[in-house]
Amino acid sequence: MSEKVKFYNISKLLKTNSRFMLCFGERSNGKTFQALLYGLERYLKYGVKIAIIRRYREDFKSKRGANAWNNLISDHNGHNHIKELTKGKYEAVKYNAGQWYLAHWDTDLQRYVTEPEPFAYSFALTEWEHDKGNSYPIGTIFLDEFMSSTYLPQETVAFFQVLSTIVRSRASIYGQPIQVIMAANSISRYCPYFEEFGIGEKVRSMQKGEIRIFKYGDSDLRVAVEYCDSPNINKPSDVFFAFENSKAVQMITKGAWLLDLYPHLTRKFEDKDIVFSYFVIFHENILQADIVIKDNEAFTFIHRKTTPIKYEDKDIIFTTDADQRANYFGRLTRPVTKAGKKIWYFFVNNKVFYSTNEIGDIMNHYIDWSNGIAS
Predict the structure, then answer these.
(1) Whole-angstrom distance, CA of residue 73 vs CA of residue 53
(2) pTM listed for this prediction
(3) What is the C-alpha to C-alpha distance for residues 226 and 24, in angstroms, rounded to an integer?
(4) pLDDT, tens digit, for every residue of 192-212?
């Protein structure tokens, strides 16, 4: 007999009593379910309503919006949490014009009748300007899928604009603290929200099952981050994901960071074959890129530099930080010197190799930043 499937439980994260609570990990482990369940419980107990935030309005259109609460209406065991929490008063949720309403089936009318007021509202980051000026009695704010392979331009700015619209000048509503819950699959270590919160380096060193709490000076702001554990072993669905070397499968089934496969060298070279080296500084990482010529073949090999840059006032250094020194440059993909154009040539012609997939991932995120894509 197969082991009973377990799901993520948000209780440990809630016990941190933080304003912002972030959780990430394997796909389909119950993060969204737990966030919505907690929001609904707060609404029924205190009257504080819920904001659900996604990137695009399309994320709420048609079935996407209508089905947002389906797992609470019928979970994997067929249990109706809506009916249980409302003591039978409601058993369904109806969606209309970007808002969700509790509903019950009227046997006389032979249709669902909804509660007069919505209990949850939808917000799209791409449309934050349309929501300015409105006031919402919202106490639970939920941003789903805050990690992505692609982000909106200035996404964190749009998020804080939406947040400002919702909270206005309040820190609480109906005596309850306004809380922000953010959930995501463990797609990428380099997430603009982590950088905006000033916690990127520390989050990237977290282990599964760990919760870290971050404080900000003398303020009452606390940000709690949980790298969700993976409690399930030998799930029935594992038969579809038994590809041991697949990075995508590792992310889906075990919550591992999703790393692409990057080209590795198939031949060795010596120090004398290196004709030029430059460096890339991206967040806490320093990468060394060696341009190699061997047997009439030219390529770039990128690896981690574990010691300080020796000639930091002379070597070519690419960095995301502004620096007045003439040997420092920002965007490798937009060369402004002859040397920069020669460096970029190797990337354009697929002549770049990496020591590990992690190094390739770091460099790829720097390239995204260089191209104006958030990382």
Answers:
(1) 21
(2) 0.79
(3) 7
(4) 999 999 999 999 999 999 999
